[in-house]
UniProtKB/TrEMBL annotation:
InterPro entries: Ap4A_hydrolase, Calcineurin-like_PHP_lpxH, Metallo-depent_PP-like, Pesterase_MJ0912, Phosphodiesterase_MJ0936/Vps29. Its cofactor is a divalent metal cation. It comes from Mesotoga infera. The keyword Metal-binding applies. This is Phosphoesterase. GO terms for molecular function: metal ion binding; phosphatase activity. Its EC number is 3.1.4.-. Residues 1-201 form the Calcineurin-like phosphoesterase domain. Keywords: Metal-binding. One of its GO terms (cellular component) is cytoplasm. PANTHER family: BLL5683 PROTEIN, METALLOPHOSPHOESTERASE.
């Protein structure tokens, strides 16, 4: 069974379309979206429409919650000052440019999805098994916390998003993945990122895939919409991060 997991599109339609096209070429059996369809980017309505049109199983992210319920904050750990103002401006703009129908869809998204394939059980969550929307599970998260999260999950494999940092951790016979970000990477690589997992009779192999897309088109749309220029800078640079501690590998196999 070939599975794909992606998240944190953040209104970047060009990146989403590129990832969906790449999945089609690779013969994906099923794909799942781990939330944050909206926020930051210039096309929240179109992204929601594409996910709905394709019927992709999707869970709620903190930005989906904020836009769907028209909140003033997404609950993100912004730095005080300009970063907070940019986030708040993005939320207000996204609320104003997302239809009531799409907001209702976002409000109805579940916080988790659980399933089993080929003898391997999966839990999908945006943040963590304990704090579904807001906890940042990072490469620097202590092993003791990871053990508690995986114990709470009770599944062989947990896949989350939220941090925009691709990651894999092997903790006491269980796997924890972060699928990176389609529309707003933060690991120094501007390309859209998603996670490919092959499962066969209790064995699992994975690969983080990077997909180029038309950044220029997205950046031009950000400017045309009047969104903060910082949002374009993040897409242009991939927002630098030390990849050495993420645990990311191009490909690896596990038996669960």
């Amino acid at each position: 069974m070939r599975l794909a997991f992606f998240s944190d599109i953040h209104g970047n339609l060009e990146a989403l379309q590129a990832v969906l096209e790449d999945m089609e070429k690779r013969g994906i059996d099923r794909c799942y979206c781990l939330g944050d369809l909206v926020g930051y980017g210039p096309q929240p309505e179109e992204v929601v429409g594409k996910i709905r049109e394709l019927g992709i199983p999707t869970i709620m992210g903190n930005y989906d919650d904020a836009i769907g319920f028209e909140k003033e904050s997404c609950g993100c750990a912004y730095n005080p000052g300009r970063e907070t103002r940019v986030g708040d401006e993005s939320i207000k703009w996204s609320i104003a440019n997302t239809s009531d129908t799409s907001k209702e869809y976002l409000r109805r998204l579940p916080h988790t999805i659980e399933f089993e394939d080929e003898g391997v059980s999966f839990l999908l969550v945006h943040g963590s098994p304990l704090e579904h929307l807001l906890e940042y599970v990072k490469p620097t998260t202590p092993p003791e916390r990871l053990e508690r999260l995986l114990e709470k999950a009770g599944s062989d494999v947990v896949v989350n998003g939220h941090t925009h940092l691709p990651m894999v951790r092997w903790i006491k016979g269980k796997l924890l993945f972060n699928d990176g970000s389609v529309g707003r990477p933060k690991d120094g690589d501007w390309r859209a990122c998603y996670l490919l997992v092959d499962v066969n009779r209790g064995s699992l192999s994975y690969e983080f895939l990077r997909v180029e897309y038309d950044r220029k088109a997205t950046i031009e749309k950000i400017a045309k919409a009047g969104l903060p220029a910082e949002l374009s800078v993040v897409l242009a640079l991939g927002e630098g991060y030390d990849m050495g501690s993420t645990g990311e590998s191009n490909s690896m196999e596990f038996t669960l």
